[in-house]
Amino acid sequence: MACALRPVRIDEFLYEDAKRHAKAESRTIAGQIEFWAKLGKAALDNPDLPVDFVRDLLISRADPRDQAIPFVPEGRRSDSND
Asked: Which residue among 18, 21, 31, 64 is least packed, with the fewest CB closer than 10 Å?
């Protein structure tokens, strides 16, 4: 998807908060604000889902597919000692 660069005015507090989170999460400041916007939109579009679940889903969708760990239901794991 093409990325259009557009100047946007935001509150200084939001910018500084995004700067801190971006550094901690290895994103650009613009990338952090974009992530928050996507998270907010997805949470509003899916009010029945917990925000943490939506966040984890967005993060996992950004991971390369070849590095993904397949989901195995708990009852079918071969490493369980139950």
From this structure: 64
- Asked if 22 and 36 touch (Cβ cutoff 8 Å), the reply is no
Residues 14 and 7: beta-carbon distance below 8 Å: no
List the one residue out of 69, 32, 39 whose CA is nearest residue 54: 39
Burial class (CB in 10 A: 0-12, 13-18, 19+), 32: buried
pTM: 0.68
**SS3 of residue 26 by DSSP:** coil
Q: Write the pLDDT tens digit of every residue in 12-29.
A: 999 999 999 999 989 999
**CB of 49 within 8 A of CB of 68?**
no
